[in-house]
Amino acid sequence: MSGVPTIAFTGHRGLPRDTAVRVSHALRAVLAGRHRPLVGLSCLAEGADQLFAREVLRAGGELDVIVPAAGYRESLPRAARAGYDDLLSLARHVHRMPFERPEPVAYMAASVFMLERADELLAVWDGLPARGYGGTADVVAHAREQEMRVLVLWPPGSRRD
């Protein structure tokens, strides 16, 4: 690692508005207590990933993006694509994984790549099993297997769609 604290991120996609607000506040509080400078690593999926990326930048940190596959942007809901484009344009580095299609194996490979470059993992996770391979629970489990520091956030009252 570069000596600059590097935080990998994983989190749920389907967050209702009230949960997104709770998560943003929790992320802001966690990042406010971190040493500067810092680097956040994210795949910029809709939901928690984009919230994390915005809070990293708001905190004065830098953003590195891991794009899981060539068709990743198009796999995002239309409503999330503008946020993805904006955040991607603000990234310090963009790492593109060698997968053509956005599918579970590409998501997990991108997460492993991200964890290999991080000091810790920050997860917005409800504690439940992943809904598909490469989901938040799988990323948390992998980080824990690597004995990486993992901080899980799930603010009271939060829920998933």
Describe this protein's structure:
The mean pLDDT is 95. Strands 4-3-2-1-5-6 form a 6-stranded parallel β-sheet, with helices on both faces. It is globular. It is built from 6 helices and 6 strands. It is an alpha/beta fold. The termini are far apart. The longest helix is centred in the N-terminal third of the chain and has 16 residues, at 17-32.
- Following the backbone from N to C, one meets helices and strands in this order, namely EHEHEHHEHEHE
How are the strands of the biggest sheet laid out side by side? 4-3-2-1-5-6
Can you count the helices? 6
Question: What does the overall shape look like?
Answer: globular
Return Rg in Å: 14 Å
Unreliable stretches, pLDDT < 50, 5 or more residues? none
Structural class: alpha/beta
- How far apart, in Å, are the first and last alpha carbons? 36 Å
- What is the tally of beta strands? 6
Q: How much strand?
A: 15-25%
Profile the largest sheet: 6 strands, parallel
Mean residue pLDDT: 95
Question: Helix amount, in percent?
Answer: 40-55%
Multimeric status of the protein: single chain
